[in-house]
Specification:
With 528 residues, the protein is of the alpha/beta class. It has 22 helices and 14 strands. One of its GO terms (biological process) is cellulose biosynthetic process.
Length: 528
């Protein structure tokens, strides 16, 4: 019993167990003191500044407001762009999309290459021209040649445009018309089939004459590339190492004279679009960017009962190297008097065409043309079938009937069909233009431009410019009362007599008009 009792009594602690307890106590104390010490040290660094640089503060002032495609080095933004993603572009934030915006003038480095010029003929207002212009500035366009009339030529609009660096505004005055009346284009055959016709044909001739003048201006300004775009079109430089038109054209081999951008067409999902550049993200892809089986296999679903796959044109737009003997070949292409240009068609980049993206586009197109709303007469005025149908509807239907027709033929309301065509690749989502334009707006770029132009003009100067523009427009209207190019009776009669005798015209291949994409019948003929 004594032995049993002895074995059950607690034993005094040994020296080894005592040392273990002491070690654990020290470790626990160290782990407690360490985070407290680090917290105190961090507080001290914040209080004193600590010499720790904020990565943003290391950016130079010159670099802090640059956008993709604006740096003089083609590789400067590659590392940054490789880390970005579509998700980051779409992330919602309460801060402006361009938080480091500093100078809306976008002063580009004088040695920036290549230098890109865009020319356009427009009668639009600032609400359309400014987003269009500054989007292209962001992707690397250097200069703009704006041939303006209508609203675009009004003092409130034109003075703002003239205040923007890199922009040249050309008004449609009597002097301009007299100069264009002497153009060699009138003595050549490539555009002759479009002469003396109204509406779209007249516009096509006017655009070609303006492009001819723009080539000379671009060459004198030292431009490397020239592009003709309408103000409802945005270049989408997909496929470049960065979202940059400058980088895209920089990578084009030097032996190519012309770059073809296939066009994508806006596919609106609502009938109340007000600002297409920031509200439209769905586009129908061009035939050139689709597999043939996919295109023709989904042709019926993609066309939705309209005359063609696209509502309007499907043959894209082109950029041309500025070089000797360059000439326009209609609004969609360029040519050269001395050689056949060598061209390359891009596999990813495109022109985004925001056609009929607003319901008001129906009536605005109608108001610009005086043709009769009959199937025969509209053929004189419009080159494409959908434009003809839209003009007749806008001229004969009530407001409700027009809206119903617009919803049926233009608006993509069937979400299930949209999803199917998106999965097949017929439709695609493109968000970059939305993000860029919205970012420019949130950063105050557009409002700053308008305010800057207003502040730079005194009241007297503004009134003087108003009177000057009024007299210019009066002179222009006096020179062409019907706004018909080349309608001088004597010159027209003389040209026709000489044309019949074959002693005037220089013969060239016909200009490239706006063309619809391939149809089912065309493919059947090809296969046969």
């Amino acid at each position: 019993m004594a032995g049993l009792y002895t074995s059950l009594r607690p034993q005094p602690p040994s020296s080894s167990s005592s040392s273990q307890q002491s070690f654990f106590s020290k470790v626990l104390l160290f782990l407690t003191i360490l985070p407290l010490s680090l917290a105190v040290f961090a507080f001290f660094l914040q209080w004193r500044g600590g010499g720790v640089d904020d990565p943003i503060s290391r950016w130079s002032p010159e670099e802090s407001h640059k956008f993709p495609g604006m740096d003089s080095s083609p590789l400067a933004t590659v590392a940054h762009s490789s880390q970005s993603s579509d998700c980051s572009l779409l992330a919602h934030t309460n801060t402006p999309s361009f938080p480091y915006y500093k100078d809306w003038k976008f002063k580009l480095h004088p040695d920036l290459k290549p230098k890109i010029c865009i020319t356009t003929s427009t009668s639009a207002g600032l609400e359309q021209i400014l987003p269009w212009m500054f989007y292209h500035k962001v992707i690397g366009v250097t200069s703009f040649l704006l041939f303006v009339e209508g609203k675009a030529a009004s003092p409130d609009v034109s003075k703002v445009l003239e205040s923007i660096p890199g922009v040249k505004v050309i008004y449609r005055t009597r002097k301009l018309e007299e100069q264009q009346a002497k153009s060699r284009i009138w003595n050549e055959t490539w555009l002759s089939s479009f002469f003396y016709k109204p509406c779209n044909y007249e516009l096509f001739v006017k655009q070609s004459l303006n492009m001819e003048m723009a080539i000379v201006m671009a060459r004198d300004a030292g431009m490397d590339w020239i592009i003709h775009l309408d103000t409802d079109e945005l270049i989408h430089p997909a496929g470049a190492r960065e979202y940059s038109l400058r980088q895209l054209l920089l990578d084009v081999p030097s032996n190519f004279d012309m770059v073809i951008f296939p066009n994508y067409e806006s596919s609106v999902e609502r009938d109340d679009i007000k600002d297409p550049f920031t509200e439209v993200s769905m586009f129908k892809k061009n035939y050139d960017h689709l597999m043939k089986d996919t295109y023709f296999g989904m042709y019926k679903e993609a066309t939705r009962g309209n005359p063609n796959y696209f509502l309007t044109y499907g043959n894209g737009k082109a950029a041309a190297r500025v070089q000797d003997h360059l000439r326009p070949n209609g609004a969609h292409r360029w040519h050269n008097y001395m050689k056949t240009p060598k061209e390359i068609k891009l596999e990813e980049a495109a022109v985004l065409h925001y056609t009929y993206s607003k319901f008001s586009d129906l009536t605005s197109r109608r108001d610009r043309c005086g043709c009769k709303p009959t199937k025969e007469d509209v053929k004189r005025c419009f080159m494409l079938e959908f434009d003809r149908s839209a003009f007749i509807i806008a001229s004969t239907a009530t407001e409700d009937e027009m809206l119903n027709w617009y919803r049926e033929h233009v608006v993509w309301t069937d979400k299930a069909m949209n999803l199917k065509l998106l999965r097949k690749g017929i439709l695609t989502r493109i968000y970059a233009p939305m993000v860029i334009v919205q970012g420019l707006r949130e950063s105050g770029v557009f409002s700053s431009i308008v305010l800057s132009a207003q502040e730079s003009l005194s009241k007297d100067k503004f009134l003087a410019s108003f009177e000057s523009n009024s007299s210019s427009k009066a002179a222009a209207s006096e020179s062409l009362p019907s706004r018909k190019i080349g309608r001088n009776q004597h010159s027209q009669a003389a040209r026709r007599v000489l044309a019949e005798s074959g002693s005037l015209f220089e013969f060239h291949d016909e200009a490239v008009p706006p063309r619809s994409p391939p149809g089912i019948d065309a493919d059947v003929i090809t296969e046969a």
